Amino acid sequence: MSREFLTHPFEAFCPPDCRILILGSFPSDASRKDGFYYAHPRNRFWKVISALCGSQMPESLEEKKALLTEGGIALWDTIASCLITSSADSSIINAEVNDIPSLLRDYPIEAVFCNGKKSAELYKKHIGGKTNLPMDALPSTSPANASYSLEDLIEKWSVIKQYLR
Question: Which domains does the chain carry?
Answer without folding.
Answer: 4-163 (3.40.470.10)
